[in-house]
Amino acid sequence: MERLFTVALEAMDAAFQDYAAALPKPERVRQGDGWNYRFKTQDVYHAVVLKLALVQSALRAALILNSSGYVMEQGMLQRVIDEANEDILFLVYAITNDTITELHLRYLAAFWAEEFGDFDNPTDSHQSRDMVKREKIRAYLARIEGKNPDPSTAVKVTKVVSKVYSGFVHGASPHIMEIYGGDPPHFHTRGVLPRIPEYQRDLANYIYRGLLSHIFAAKLFGSQTHVDTLMKFKQTMEQAMGSDFATKP
């Protein structure tokens, strides 16, 4: 299964590199005493590329954590990936299924906002983002999918799954107890090796949904070649996972 994950991530990355190459490269900008890279254009397309980069990096990190038995930390990352996948669909739908709404504009304003107004004085210039509530994003997704039904199961399960995995991020007792056990029972703070297979199966769902996000992005960027290639790999994953989700983004 781990080999399948690696190949899936390579397929995603091949598509992602083309998406990123379709945009002007980020430019170096002065921020206080240092320099950072920033996109000059701050639109849906650029935001989707950044979110895909987050998904890919987090999936690879989760794979490394899983291989060492750090299942609690894997759960934390999966919570991050949940939201990123939601955000990708939220942004893609604005172009492919709907129009850019006030909610999208508000989301983008918060997304592109810098952390500090004055990088030479970060303590006094920290800026609070006007974040769009997760419930509003999910309500938008439900409205669009209800108006033009999309057979993807990813969004339908995200709300419940996100609530479950938030316990890992916030350190809820039941989630911390995931690393307790053995003979004699104790806290496994150096990895819970016996739980690797269980959480590897869980990670398969996240690799699959990351794949779906890259397929939706392919539609956004008008790349039918990547749609076809990734759809074939999606079917390979379904066969390996023993499930036919009947999804066709």
Structure overview:
The structure is a single chain. A hairpin with a 2-residue loop joins β1 and β2. The chain is globular, with a radius of gyration of 19 Å. It starts with a helix and ends in an 8-residue tail after the last helix. α1 runs antiparallel to α10 and α9 runs antiparallel to α10. The protein is 65% helix and 6% strand. It is mainly alpha-helical and 249 residues long. It has ten helices and four strands. The protein has one domain. Strands 1-2 form a two-stranded antiparallel ribbon.
Short précis:
By secondary structure, the chain is mainly alpha-helical. Helix content is 65%, strand content 6%. The protein has one domain.
Summary tags:
249 residues, 6% strand, mainly alpha, two-stranded antiparallel ribbon, 4 strands
What topology does this entry show?
Layout: H1 2-21, E1 27-31, E2 34-38, H2 44-67, H3 71-96, H4 102-112, H5 122-125, H6 134-147, H7 154-170, H8 173-176, E3 180-181, E4 186-187, H9 196-220, H10 224-241
Antiparallel strand pairs: 1-2, 3-4
Helix pairs in contact: 1-2, 1-9, 1-10, 2-3, 2-9, 3-6, 3-7, 3-9, 9-10
**Largest sheet, spatial ordering of strands:** 1-2
Distance, first to last CA? 24 Å
**How many helical stretches?**
10
Radius of gyration, in Å, reads: 19 Å
Q: How much helix, percentage-wise, in residues?
A: 55-70%
Strand segment count: 4
Mean pLDDT: 89
Helix/sheet category: mainly alpha
Specify the overall morphology: globular
How many domains make up the 3D coordinates? 1
Question: How much strand content do the residues show?
Answer: 5-15%
Instruction: Characterize the biggest β-sheet.
Output: 2 strands, antiparallel
In N-to-C order, the SSE pattern is HEEHHHHHHHEEHH
| Spans where pLDDT lies below 50 across 5 or more residues | 148-152
